[in-house]
Sequence to fold (62 residues):
Amino acid sequence: MLGALGRPHELKLHVKGALKNGVTKDEIKEILLQVGVYCGIPSGIDAFRNAREAFNEVEEKK
Fold:
């Protein structure tokens, strides 16, 4: 929903929280694929970009 609504900051927070709770990157990517399918490719691309930023931020803290 956050990807569809164009809420990048909230999306990143939720991705980081999901990673901390054991959700894998591949599972998150599968979820975001649905954003592109149901909400349009531009929304999907933005969601993937924001998730990638969150992945990188989490990995930098390790």
Observations:
- The chain has a mean pLDDT of 93.
